[in-house]
Design brief:
The structure is a homodimer.
Chain A (H helix, E strand, L loop, with lengths): L5 H8 L3 H8 L7 H14 L5 H6 L6 E7 L2 H4 L3 H13 L3 E7 L2 H13 L5 E4 L7 H9 L3 E4 L9 E4 L2 H14 L4 E5 L6 H13 L2 E5 L5 H12 L7 E4 L2 H13 L9 E5 L3 H6 L2 E4 L2 H16 L6 E3 L4 E3 L9
Parallel strand pairs in A: 1-2, 1-3, 3-4, 4-5, 5-11, 6-7, 6-8, 8-9, 9-10
Antiparallel strand pairs in A: 10-12
Chain A binds a DNA duplex through helix 2 and helix 4.
Chain lengths: 327, 327
DNA sequence: GACCCTAGCTAAACCGGTTTACCTGCGGCT
DNA sequence: AGCCGCAGGTAAACCGGTTTAGCTAGGGTC
């Protein structure tokens, strides 16, 4: 019932605990004959090292961490994160320590604890803020980390990112080519770095633009759409920062009798089954692959490689039925 | 930079490590004066106990585990699990140790390891199989567990479940009341217990039924639908085991020129934004709340309460545009 | 005054590994 | 013979907690 420990192996093989440790970890200090015997005994006993004990003496914790700061209820609808997590797991043999907290302060406290206790070997940093304190924290703690979905080049940290600027520009250019001039953008959380970067790209490429703040929820998407369609200068196209808001916006348009795409064009950032079935034009990126890439980047750092900035492939605009030439 | 340990507190308070441990954990053996002094020192030093070290001497691991056996890529589309996880987290102050593996054998091996190493205090068991070996394993290991979405009453384990039989019956009765006689069912993975239970309920309540096996993916939903619509005896209604397959089925029907709901009624098991926007009639349950309930059940077991079977509220059939009277 | 309890604390073992300091024996070199 | 170096190992400390055995001083009892 009880798992064999290194001590049991030592006794069975007739050597000391230290020798067993050396043998199992492939380090020098024991003869090949002894090593073979130890490995033999270990395997017949069905030995598995205890990560818990190992983590205590500052070795691997066999887990990487991810902290999400969201109201839990809202989180469930954001397929993005689950896709990301699934992608990460596809490349990792270790477990993911996941916790959802309510505030940035708790998040930071949690990273400190996990680091202090060797509970994780490294962490993923998502939802990067403008001048995010976590970047500095990771460097000072020396906790391996990879920034996921930032803007590239975050201090000494590895990073996996997409070029939001180029992506936004391509969306706007596409809409322009259809004759749109008055274009609106419904944003995600304004505290996030990529929101700001998309804002900037939007402003610099659009002729007559208007930005309305949202927060990724269907409600905010609907509200923003109502506001835009009821304003003095109704836009002919709206770009939403995620799929949920875009679909909600399309519903509002339909309920107000605004026809899509003849009167209003709609573009969603991040494709999903939701967009596919709603026939929404969307900026598509492979979030699963993105997560997998992030995991590989973190593993590389854990193996001692120099942190790198990996730029994700440029998202592709998938044109469906929700966009068309301006009337 | 280094976290204060129990040793530092002992030194600062002028007592032994043991006394500090007793004081911090509110156990008897130290005077109130000493306890107060120790707590004082601990708080000024910003002490946080190391869960890693604590777990070694068989105390709390401050984490609960969840193992998912799925091809990672398919997982990302299953909003169900993420909703569930979000709900669990909403009720837990500890972290969730999550790992996706490829086989049942790996899953079992993982549970054994986590148990042996005190990496988790307890686990959630999902995707219950017909006569699932994990139930027996948990009992024999003495690892606290709660069965999520089984059929109630699993040995000595706590359980949170929904009455699939009653739910299926209510769906079939609803379809019958619309005049449907030839009804089809597209299932989820046939190895899962709730699939079998739904099958049984379906068979016992339907008059002229046919069952086609699926695996929750859009592809399998589409294939099953094509098969059904091309058969000798085309059904007038199809009940799908999840939202993804139902939506895919609706697409296939549309592409074959079969009109919904006048020629074919469609019902999805588990509601989601996907069903809402596809105007699909769906069996709706609050997965987030379900997860929250599961977490509470596990926490109760961890606190020593007797394991209970909690029956979830009966899923509610939300009628939308995809079901109607038979022509 | 002898005896026994008990509160309050300390020292040390323990959990399961890693790591360091040190010991031993053997071979080679001069 | 004397010395050095090294391979191959052991014992013990250490990581940061918990837990147990044991010690001491003080009070109550007869």
């Amino acid at each position: 019932m009880k798992r064999p420990t290194i001590k049991d192996i030592a006794a069975a093989a007739g050597v000391s605990k230290g020798a067993v440790s050396l043998a199992l970890n492939g380090r020098s200090g024991v003869s090949e004959a002894t090593r073979a015997r130890v490995l033999e005994v270990a395997s017949t006993l069905g030995y598995r090292p205890s990560v818990t004990a190992r983590a205590l003496s500052s070795a691997s914790a066999d887990a990487v961490g991810l902290v999400l700061v969201r109201p839990p209820r809202a989180l469930g609808d954001e397929a993005f994160f689950f896709q990301l997590i699934a992608g990460m797991q596809s490349e990792m043999s270790s477990a993911l320590l996941l916790q959802v907290v309510g505030s940035r302060a708790e998040e930071i406290e949690l990273y400190r604890r996990w680091w202090a206790e060797h509970r994780v070997d490294g962490v993923f940093l998502v939802d990067l803020l403008v001048s995010d304190p976590r970047v500095e924290l990771m460097s000072s703690l020396g906790l391996p980390a990879v920034v996921v979905g930032g803007a590239g080049h975050h201090g000494s940290l590895a990073s996996v990112w997409a070029d939001d600027h180029a992506a936004m520009t391509s969306v706007v250019e596409y809409l322009k080519s259809l004759g749109h001039r008055r274009i609106a953008r419904v944003t995600g959380l304004s505290s996030l770095l990529h929101t700001v970067r998309r804002d900037a790209a939007f402003v610099s490429s659009v002729v007559d633009g208007v930005i309305v703040a949202g927060d990724y929820t269907a409600e905010s998407g609907a509200a923003a759409t109502r506001e835009l369609l009821g304003s003095d200068a109704v836009p002919t196209a709206i770009v939403y920062d995620n799929d949920v808001m875009a679909v909600a916006g399309a519903e509002v348009a339909a309920s107000l009798g605004v026809s899509v795409p003849s009167e209003l064009s709609i573009v969603a950032w991040d494709d999903s089954v939701l967009c596919q079935h709603g026939r929404l034009t969307a900026l598509s990126r492979d979030t699963f692959a993105f997560g997998a890439r992030a995991a590989r980047a973190l593993l590389a750092v854990l193996e001692g490689a120099a942190p790198v900035d990996v730029e994700d492939v440029l998202p592709e605009l998938v044109v469906r039925g929700s966009t068309g030439p301006v009337a």
